[in-house]
């Protein structure tokens, strides 16, 4: 038992040394129910605690390594204590900037000590481990989660499956800022420029028709008319307005330094 705990501690300490990912330390606990025990009738239950280190590779994917100690499962004839070193790949789906769902899948190396008639039999093996649940980011550095954990086929003789309700609280060494799931698409701009002479633009009827066609067949948000020449801006706005473009989408911008040109921007 001490040997397995020492290995887990050394591996956990090494996790925060990576600089280009977000290291996370998680304390977990829960309550487990055993099933498929062939050596006794009934389904014993008991608590467990654990500690894990996680490397968040992105907003979605992570890898983690952890240690769990499962307290005694007492049956009529046996008492079983188990501990695990777990390695999992995780996926996190952000529902918004704070709430997320997650799933993890991996393997667990276990040591199971079964006591029968005051004699202890230690067994070792590898089992699949999976976890699914929901979590919440309280701050950029702290989050909590509630989930279900499954570890299959623990023990050589009289093996059992572990079904657990697990709660956890995590500390993120680097602040986590989720990308908003409702963020707008990147703003796309299409611009046209025309020269101004004597407060008149060289906007031809053909060019005006092209602008009107684009305005009527595009899903734009706004049309900006930009120049330092207010008269020229007004002329362009009037031309577009009389061609059927709603004045509500036309925005005059007079902060340009160029009095000899008018720029028309379609903001998509």
From TrEMBL:
InterPro entries documented for this protein: Beta-barrel_OMP, OMP/PagP_B-barrel
Signal peptide extent: 1-19
Keywords attached to this entry: Signal
Domain Outer membrane protein beta-barrel: 7-173
Gene3D superfamilies, A to Z: 2.40.160.20
Protein name in the entry: OmpA/MotB domain-containing protein
């Amino acid at each position: 038992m001490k040997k397995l705990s020492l290995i887990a501690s050394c591996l956990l300490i090494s996790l925060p040394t990576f600089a280009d990912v977000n290291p996370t330390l998680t304390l977990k606990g829960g309550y487990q129910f055993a099933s498929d025990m062939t050596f006794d009738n009934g389904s014993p239950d008991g608590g467990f605690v654990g500690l894990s280190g996680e490397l968040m590779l992105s907003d979605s994917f992570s890898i983690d390594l952890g240690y769990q100690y499962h307290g005694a499962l007492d049956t009529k004839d046996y008492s079983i204590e188990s501990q695990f070193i777990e390695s999992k790949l995780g996926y996190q789906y952000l529902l918004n900037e704070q709430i997320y769902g997650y799933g993890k899948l991996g393997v667990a190396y276990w040591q199971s000590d079964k006591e029968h008639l005051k004699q202890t039999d230690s067994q070792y093996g590898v089992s699949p481990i999976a976890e699914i649940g929901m979590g919440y980011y309280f701050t950029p550095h702290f989050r909590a989660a509630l989930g279900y954990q499954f570890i299959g086929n623990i023990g050589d003789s009289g093996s059992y499956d572990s079904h657990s309700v697990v709660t956890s609280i995590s500390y993120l060494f680097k602040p986590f800022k989720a990308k908003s799931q409702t963020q707008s698409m990147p703003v796309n701009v299409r611009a046209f420029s025309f020269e101004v002479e004597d407060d008149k633009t060289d906007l031809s009827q053909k060019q005006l028709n092209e602008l009107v066609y684009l305005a009527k067949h595009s899903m734009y948000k706004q049309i900006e008319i930009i120049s330092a020449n207010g008269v020229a801006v007004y002329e362009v706005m009037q031309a577009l307005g009389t061609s059927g473009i709603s004045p509500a989408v036309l925005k005059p911008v007079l902060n340009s330094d160029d009095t000899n040109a008018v720029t028309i921007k379609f903001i998509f």
